[in-house]
Every structure is written in C-alpha cells, then in structure tokens.
Automatic annotation (TrEMBL):
CDD domains: ATZ_TRZ_like
Annotated Amidohydrolase-related domain residues: 57-428
UniProt keyword list: Hydrolase
A single MF term (Gene Ontology): hydrolase activity, acting on carbon-nitrogen (but not peptide) bonds
Family that this chain belongs to: Belongs to the metallo-dependent hydrolases superfamily. ATZ/TRZ family.
Pfam family name, one: Amidohydro_1
InterPro entries documented for this protein: Amidohydro-rel (IPR006680), Metal-dep_hydrolase_composite (IPR011059), Metal_Hydrolase (IPR032466), MTA/SAH_deaminase (IPR050287)
Native organism: Mangrovimicrobium sediminis
Record protein name field: Amidohydrolase
Length: 465
C-alpha cells in the first residue's frame, strides 16, 4: 500500500464542466486511486508528499486514436501533403512501413508516449495495424513494455488488414494477414494483457483497420470475438472511403457496419468527417462513439467533422492526435485548440452553433474515457484514478488569461510541456524530466535504430525538392 499526498494546488479542475474548479486544495491517492480532495488534508499515514504549490491541475487527457508506428517518418520534406496526392502518399510511405520490425515499434511507442505524457496525456489508445512480414509475433507486447517503462496507461487496438491490393485494398500485400491469424493474436493478447479492473494500466481492443481494406468476414468475426471476451471494438470510418464502399457493397460505410453488427456502446470509430446528420442520429441512438482527430481534417479531410451535430445528439465524442503520418506531433493538448479553431472557422457553414470552448476539454478527458469504456478515468474525484497534469499559469504569458481554466486549453492553449504529469498516483514527468530515466539515452537509441533500419530508405525523402 502506498499513499501520496499532492499539496497546495492553486486550482484543481475536477472535470471539463462548469462548477468543477476548486481552489487551494490537496489531493490524496492510495495505490493510484483518489481517496480525498480538499483543503489542508491531514498528513496521517502518508508515504510521500508532493508539493504542487501554485500549479493548476487538470484531469489527465485521454487520447482515443493514434498510430505509434508512424513516429519514425515525421517531418520529412518528401512526405508533404501540400505536394502529394493521397495515392502518391500511400505509394511512398507504405513500402517504408512494410520494413518496420518489433524494435521499431518499441522505439516508436516510446517516442509517441513521451510526447503525449509531456503534454498531459495520461491514457493513450494506439491503433496498431502494421503487422508486416518483417515483424515477429510480439509487436503489441513491445508497446506495453514501452508504456510500462514510461509509466503511461495504454490501450492497444490490435488491428489488421486482410484484403489484397488485387481486390481493391490500398495496403501492400506485405502488410496483410489472414483473419484467422488476426483473431488468434487477439485471443493471445487479451489473455496476456487485458485487465478490466478499475485502475488498470493495460487493456486490449479488437480493431480491424477499416472495412474498405478488409475481407467481409473479418469484421463480424472480430465483433464476435470481442463480445465473447467483453473487450471493445474500434476502426476507421467515414474518412473518405464511402465512395469505395458504395462501389464495392452498394452501401455507405456505416450502413455496412450496422449490417454486420459493428456498432453499439462497445464501439467507437476514428474520424467520421463524412458522417451525415441522419447517420449521427443513428450513432447516438446505438451509443457508438467517435474519436475526433482535428489535425487530419486540416491536412486531408474534404469536410469538417460535424461536432455541433454530434454534441447536439449527445454522442460519445473523444479526441485523438492520430498517427504522425497526418499529424507530425503527438500533443493532445494542442488538439483541443486545433479542434476549437476548426469549428470556429466552420461555424458560418453549419446551422448549429460550434461547441463552447470548455467542451473540448470534456472531449479530451471524460469523452475519451467514455470511448474507451472507462469509468475510472477522465475526471478527478474520489474513487477515480489519480491521473492528472499540472500547468504553471503564474507566468506573464498567462496574465489576465487564467480566470476561466475550463476554456483556457481551447482558447489560449498551453505554451509548452506540462509542469508535471501524474499517472495512477505516480509522477512520471516533472520539471522537464522523466524521473529515473535518461531521456538523452533513449533518444540516442531511437536515432541509432533509424540509422540501422531505415536511413537508406528515408534519405530520398529527407531532401526537399
């Protein structure tokens, strides 16, 4: 048993809702779960005291969609969406992804999780669908290993692609699996890692990549397996593939998912910028969630995600950074502001009002927790996990701007990394350091891996022009 007392918060934002800001309080956590919040909590039976004087605490952010493996191809001039079409981009990048192995996935997971933790994200979902012929059989295992090293709470969506390119897939055959192999590894991972208990640090999601790149049987069989084990389901949907689905099946993506049982309160979809108002109403009625990823909308989305309709329908909406192929950063705090600005820009084209600024904090915390099926994270309250991040709003750059901490993440944003990030009652990031870890050494190892495995293949993409 370990009890930690976090003392002297200037402000503590309990949730992304009005009336949830406390001032001059402490927070006590026992074995990672919150036991008390209030002023001047007693020091009795406390194993550790952490001074949080002057800091403003927010619930830990919950990332609901990512692709860690793409971290190794960030910021390459030859992969610029301003110069490449989608098909050109796919033709360029997927041969590189097909070369990644387990070590690459481990280091890419460290890179992505470090960025997330530094900026206040305490729970991350990664959609790992890259299982190529170079990889061994312990890809997701290495992701959980990386999360354990950094102290992050991690959900991994075991993805797959099963449709050959000759049948219309955009995925190279080197990255294909059979449905049976996919399901067998899902079974293994659920048995090895999935923990449904409150405060769990590791969970597994069954997550075939997307219907347009899968054989028809992959999705209903995935849904049957997930429901047999009581785990959640995830996939990409309504991000530009509806025309292809109409050509192949004679129905839109959501219609097809409904026809095979891949909707419901245990399902959330990534993106959804093509969802129509009637489809949004159906999603709300079935309890199906959506991970809104604003950065890809700026880069590749033909339409702006209809958040006003989703909020009006009381849909479950979380927020995600997406993979670095369409967002070279893993900063979920930044995504709150991107999402807000995107909806403000689009407000003149939508009959419904844009969600208010505090709503984006709700999406990135409680909304994300709901997508993942977690009732123990997403807010700060007794009985919940002690997951939070702290911002230092005492500098001149925040003068006059911190009177409304609920709206601040969307309207003002955070100028840099969090002052502190706490996961399950443990300080995992503070004052520019991961306690107990040598970040320079971790960076050197990642750079060495890039040189060994990918340098020759990335060199042409590193030269502008």
């Amino acid at each position: 048993m370990s009890t930690v007392l976090f003392r002297n918060f200037r402000q503590l934002v309990c949730a992304g809702a009005p009336g949830s800001v406390l001032r001059d309080v402490d927070l006590c956590a026992r074995d990672g779960m919150i036991t008390a919040i209030g002023p001047q909590l007693p020091l009795t039976d406390v194993d550790e005291v952490v001074d949080c004087g002057g800091l403003t605490a927010y619930p830990g952010l919950v990332n609901t969609h990512h692709h860690f493996f793409q971290a190794l191809v960030r910021n390459l001039p030859g992969l610029d969406w301003t110069t490449l079409s989608l098909l050109e981009w796919l033709d360029t990048i997927y041969p590189i992804f097909a070369r990644l192995d387990e070590d690459c996935i481990y280091h890419a997971s460290l890179i992505s999780l470090a960025d997330l933790l530094k900026h206040g994200c305490t729970t991350a979902f990664d959609h790992q669908y890259n299982f190529n012929s170079n990889m061994g059989s312990r890809v997701v295992d290495r992701q959980f290993e990386a999360a354990a090293l950094l102290g992050a709470r991690l959900h991994v969506g075991r993805g797959c692609n099963t449709l050959p390119m000759s049948a219309g897939s955009t995925i190279p055959d080197a990255m294909l699996e059979t449905t049976d192999a996919f399901l067998a590894d899902c079974e293994r991972l659920i048995g090895a890692f999935h923990n449904p208990a409150p405060g769990a640090m590791a969970q597994v999601v069954v997550a075939p990549c997307q219907p347009v790149n899968s054989l028809p049987e992959t999705f209903p069989e995935a849904a049957a397996l997930a429901r047999r084990h009581g785990v959640r389901l995830h996939t990409h949907l309504s991000e530009g593939e509806n025309a292809a689905m109409l050509d192949r099946f004679g129905m839109r993506s959501l219609d097809w998912c409904e026809s095979v049982g891949f909707v419901g309160p245990d399902v959330w979809f990534a993106h959804g910028w093509e969802f129509t108002p009637p489809e949004i109403a159906r999603l709300a009625a079935t309890g199906t969630g959506v991970a809104h990823c604003p950065a890809p909308v700026f880069l590749v989305g033909a339409e702006v995600t209809d958040l006003p309709a989703m909020v009006a329908a009381d849909m479950t909406v979380g927020m995600g950074v997406d993979g670095q192929a369409s967002n070279d950063s893993s900063n979920l705090a930044e995504c709150m502001r991107l999402a807000y600005l995107l909806q403000c820009l689009n407000a003149r084209h939508n009959p419904l009002p844009a969600p208010p600024p505090e709503r984006y904090l709700h999406m990135a915390t409680a909304g994300g927790a709901a997508c993942l099926g977690r009732t123990d994270i997403g807010e700060l309250a007794v009985g919940k996990a002690a997951d939070f991040f702290c911002a230092d709003l005492n500098g001149l750059d925040y003068a006059g701007a911190d009177s409304d901490p609920l709206s601040l993440p969307a309207k003002v944003g955070f100028a840099g990394p969090a002052a502190m990030t706490v996961v399950h009652g443990r300080v995992v990031w503070r004052d520019g350091e991961f306690p107990g870890l040598d970040e320079t050494q971790l960076r050197s190892a990642a750079d060495a891996l890039l040189r060994e495995k990918l340098d020759g293949h990335l060199a042409p993409l590193r030269t502008p022009g």
